[in-house]
Amino acid sequence: MNRRKRSRAFLFSFVITIAALISLFGFFYSASLGPQYSSLPENIPNYDTLWGRYTPSNVLAVSFKNLTMLHAINSSLPPEKVILHVISPEILLNNSEVRAIASITLVSPNATVDVAFVMKPTFERFSQVLAKDGQSPSNFGDSTLYEVQVNPGTNTQPGWVAVVPRDNAIAFSAGTADARSAVTESLNVLYGASPSILSRKDVTQMLYTVGGGGGHLGIQVQNFPGVVRTGEATLISVDSVGGSVQVSYVVEFADSKTASAEYGAVKSAYLSSRQFTIYDNFVKAVEYQPISAVEGAIRLVG
Questions:
Q1: What is the pLDDT of residues 77-103, one digit of tens each?
Q2: Where along the chain do its domains lie?
Q3: What is the CATH number of domain 67-190?
Q4: What is the DSSP string of the chain?
Q5: What is the pLDDT of residues 7-58, one digit of tens each?
């Protein structure tokens, strides 16, 4: 009887070991294969995204996080944090009140503007407080821009805040003249005075390779050579797929010949990726992480 039990235990252990070896072999075999090739369609869809409405075409970088989707995956995320602390007039914006947030780093002016898309009661509270006690109000379309004092961490400094009714959005930047210019530059895109990043063919092509502009946990566009120094731009998207976190890296190159030649550089840069596709002059790398790693994955987009 004991001999029979030991035989079954041995057989079970043997089967598990073989399965693990097969899985490991498949993992490394897939990694050793070359990239897939795919051609982009001639007509890419027009994408409309919250972050795209506020991001100029010549932006240095933009990152976007969908905090509502993140919270649906893990109710403890994101950790409680003050996103905006206006000292004068006194008002706080916590990330628990924010549906999504975009951070836009401009080339000119050299400044960053954050656009928080908030709950309607939060937007109404901000609008009322600023309408009553905000300084130097100026109308910008149906939005209103105010001069304020903010505390981004340690020291109080000047800043500018705009309330944007159409998206229940609050746009803000710390600083003086550059901060005001940063907020107005973003609003210029919203009101059609400046072209959006979504008017760029290369950006919409990169978005096409990751399934479009919406529905992502997070997304970032770097309008400069990133980890792959021979690239011209990089898009990173973070998605929840089948109980896992999917992270996609799309690197833009000058042309399709360069993309094929630099596939090895992309593979070396993103060592955890196991799927590679070359779309004309873009190389896409995809890695998968357990859903428990979503907090770390979302940091990849800034």
A1: 999 999 999 998 999 999 999 999 999
A2: 1-33, 35-47+197-301, 67-190
A3: 3.40.1000
A4: -HHHHHHHHHHHHHHHHHHHHHHHHHHHHHHHS--EEEPPPSSPPPP--TTGGG-BTT-SEEEEEEHHHHHHH-TT-SPP-EEEEEEETTEEEEGGGEEEEEEEE-SSSS-EEEEEEE-HHHHHHHHHHHHHH-EEEEEETTEEEEEEEE-SSSS-EEEEEEEEGGGTEEEEEESSHHHHHHHHHHHHHHTTSS-BGGG-HHHHHHHHHTT-SSS-SEEEEESS--SSTT-SEEEEEEEEETTEEEEEEEEE-SSHHHHHHTHHHHHHH-TT--EEEEETTEEEEEEEEEGGGHHHHHGGG-
A5: 554 455 544 445 333 443 444 444 456 899 999 999 999 999 999 999 999 9
